[in-house]
Write a structure and sequence with these properties.
metal ion binding, 14 helices, disordered N terminus, eight-stranded mixed beta sheet, about 400 residues, globular, binds nickel (II) ion, binds N-oxalylglycine, alpha+beta, Jelly Rolls
Length: about 400
């Protein structure tokens, strides 16, 4: 727990950040109380939130009623309005028809969505809707524990390399910290998952992972089929050999207009399967279009294309830039499953696609190197792809 003097520092920290930047600085210089909360004081906040693992949730629970400066995003990253355009035009795809008489039609819907927005929703996906409800409940259960129960999963202290709890993406390198707590669970095998993943979520997360993998593989098959590639089972397994379930918790935020839940980014892997709750706030930006919200749809799963699939398809399939808005209507949870190649896998545009396109837009890279680069930098839209771009 935090000593009460620290709590004091934090409540001094919680001045409202004025949108009138220079005036605000002037005010701060004149006010000794607020000066203590100036930029130099990022450290105590960082220690409390990130290093000690109290996370954003701990900050809110300590009575914080305004957004501390280190969470305030530059104007360019803020999301002004809660509801811009929604992607309502994109109807959910009914996966129950994928192996029936309507296969061609369903495959076409999947291919089109992957080629344009890089995001779509699926229903009748074979993952039990009861399981989806349990997942959201267990995410709440995990994050609503006292901070000391979660802090055992901080990278610095957790004996297992499979589990990692934290706040934001790479907080030590970010200009502004993302308003998001998370726990990541890497999959190696069932026994290790059931042994090391947090008790509150291990069983449901493992069930979710297993039932979603069937969906992932079927969608990858369909996408590959459209470029004339049939993946051998072994190659398919190595392309989706890295599997991770995350639970994200976006605490209710006093000033959603100043913060960001997750900054603009694309996912690095093949496909992401995401369960979101009813709160909303997931936005996606097509290559030449405006940000639009993926509306929550009960029972549906969100699927999005990651960088690896964009690289393999030589740019045909779009790894979508997306971000998450914060809200003051309640705490939001989401549960993504990230699938990516084995670290030892070499990835590059598939020969069939290069032949068709007459040019390779990406070079071959070792996935381990791609991953290291991805995790070493703060979220910055689709910059991650530059690592594999052909010169
Ligand atoms: C992510 C992500 C979206 C969400 O974790 O990579 O984009 O809705 N999450 O939480
Ligand atoms: Ni993402």
């Amino acid at each position: 727990m935090i000593p009460s003097t620290d709590l004091h520092t934090f409540s001094r920290y919680i001045y409202t950040v004025s949108l009138l930047g220079p005036l605000n600085i002037h005010f701060q210089k004149k006010n000794i109380e607020t000066m203590a909360a100036n930029y130099e004081d990022r450290d105590p906040l960082f220690n409390f939130v990130v290093k000690e693992g109290n996370a954003v949730k701990g900050l809110i629970d300590s009575g914080m009623s305004c957004v501390p400066q280190p969470f305030v995003q530059p104007l360019s990253e803020r999301i002004a309005t809660p509801n811009g355009q929604t992607c309502e035009a994109v109807q959910p795809i009914d996966l129950s028809q994928i192996d029936g008489p309507c296969h061609t039609e369903v495959a076409k819907q999947i291919v089109e969505a992957a080629e344009t927005l890089g995001f779509f929703q699926v229903v009748n996906h074979g993952v039990s809707v009861e399981l989806l409800e349990l997942l959201k409940m267990s995410a709440h259960e995990f994050f609503e524990q006292p901070p000391e129960n979660k802090a055992v999963y901080l990278k610095e202290v957790c004996p297992s390399k499979l589990v990692k709890y934290g706040t934001s993406f790479v907080p030590e390198k970010e200009k502004a910290i993302e308003w998001k707590d998370y726990v990541s669970m890497l999959y190696t095998n069932d026994d290790e998952a059931l042994q090391h993943w947090p008790l509150q979520c291990r069983e449901v997360a493992l069930d979710f992972l297993k039932s979603s993998m069937a969906v992932v593989k079927r969608i990858v098959e369909v996408l590959m089929e459209d470029v004339g590639v049939i993946l051998e089972e072994e190659r398919m397994n190595s392309l989706v050999g890295t599997k991770m379930v995350n639970m994200n918790y976006y605490p209710t935020c006093p000033s959603p207009g100043l913060t960001i839940g997750v900054g603009r980014h694309s996912d690095m892997g093949m496909l992401t399967v995401l369960l979101q709750d009813g709160i909303g706030g997931l936005y996606v930006k097509p290559d030449n279009g405006d940000w639009a919200e993926i509306p929550p749809l009960n029972g549906a799963l969100v699927i999005n294309v990651g960088d690896t699939l964009q690289i393999l398809s030589n740019g045909k399939y779009k790894s979508a830039e997306h971000r998450v808005r914060t809200t003051n209507i309640g705490s939001r949870v989401s549960v993504p499953i990230f699938t990516a190649p084995n670290p030892s896998e070499k990835i590059g545009p598939l020969p069939e696609v290069v032949e068709r396109d007459g040019v390779a837009r990406y070079k071959d890279v070792l996935f381990q190197d791609y991953m290291n680069n991805f995790f070493s930098q703060p979220h910055d839209g689709k910059k991650s792809l530059d690592f594999a771009r052909a010169d």
